[in-house]
Design a protein that fits this description.
With 74 residues, the chain is an alpha/beta fold. The protein has three helices and three strands; from the N terminus they run βαβαβα. The chain is globular and about 30 Å long.
Length: 74
Amino acid sequence: MILIIDDDSAVRSSLSFMLKRAGYEVKTAPGPREAMDIVRAEAPALILMDMNFTLSTTGEEGLTLLKQVKVFRP
């Protein structure tokens, strides 16, 4: 399963559409909280994610999420 994490619904939809057409199972999440619910329940083979979930462009939100994911799926 491929997990797409992005706060932009257009990005989530277009990536999901293309990957599903290619035969992949895809789940999407609009932010870190929803993404972690999916990560806890399932083991994504691949995560495609936005690094910025707020107006900040530092990528700190994305790095924090990556650290949380590694705790459950090292």
